[in-house]
Amino acid sequence: MQQSLCLKNLMLLLVLSSLLVAASGAVCGGCMENKVACMNSTHYKVCINNSPIENGGLLSCGNGKICTSLLDPCWLSIEGDGVEPVCDPNAVNCRTCDGSQMFVCTSRTTFQLCNGSDLSPIINTCPDNTFCSIDSGEYCVKSCSLPNGKYECDKLAP
């Protein structure tokens, strides 16, 4: 009986440890060791050659599941289990025009001209497979060139 309990605990430990992938370096929109890129808290894209497939579209984790850096990227969200989505659903950090810069990123792939503290109505779109990065000294860069590996504006669309 006790041997059976020990065996069950050992199996549970093996299953859980096989599911876990190192979470360090997990960045919203960036490819992870589990071969996916979480694009928001509940959707992901498959990665090939460390790049999200652009024409593949977003894949949903399904009801009640979050996109994680675990081996199985979609995890049933249970409060208090310590598993957090790679993309914080409440974090949308986009600069606004404050008169100090000429352009701001208005989404991951778009930027607009600032007229003082107002945005111009024209939305500029980055070429395929590039992301808005005014801080890099260019307007659009490949994901590997994003300063600190982070988006300047973590919105999927303007």
How would you explain this protein's 3D organization?
It is a single chain. The protein is α+β, with helices and mostly antiparallel strands and 158 residues long. The protein folds into two domains: 22-89, no CATH class; 103-149, no CATH class. It is built from one helix and twelve strands; from the N terminus they run αββββββββββββ. The strands form four sheets. Strands 1, 2, 3 and 4 form a four-stranded antiparallel sheet that branches. Strands 7, 8, 9 and 10 form a four-stranded antiparallel sheet that branches. Strands 5-6 form a two-stranded antiparallel ribbon. The protein is globular and about 45 Å long. The N and C termini lie far apart (60 Å).
Question: Helices and strands in order, then pairings?
Answer:
Layout: H1 2-19, E1 36-38, E2 43-48, E3 51-52, E4 59-60, E5 65-67, E6 74-76, E7 103-105, E8 110-115, E9 118-119, E10 124-125, E11 131-132, E12 140-141
Antiparallel strand pairs: 1-2, 2-3, 2-4, 5-6, 7-8, 8-9, 8-10, 11-12
Strand content: 15-25%
Mean pLDDT: 80
Instruction: Characterize the overall form.
Output: globular
Class by alpha and beta content: alpha+beta
Keywords: Signal
Signal peptide: 1-25
What attributes characterize this protein structure?
signal; globular; 23% strand; single chain; 11% helix; alpha+beta; four-stranded antiparallel sheet; 1 helix; 2 domains; 158 residues
Q: What's this, in brief?
A:
The protein is α+β, with helices and mostly antiparallel strands. The chain has one helix at residues 2-19; strands at residues 36-38, 43-48, 51-52, 59-60, 65-67, 74-76, 103-105, 110-115, 118-119, 124-125, 131-132, 140-141. It contains 1 helix and 12 strands; from the N terminus they run H-E-E-E-E-E-E-E-E-E-E-E-E.
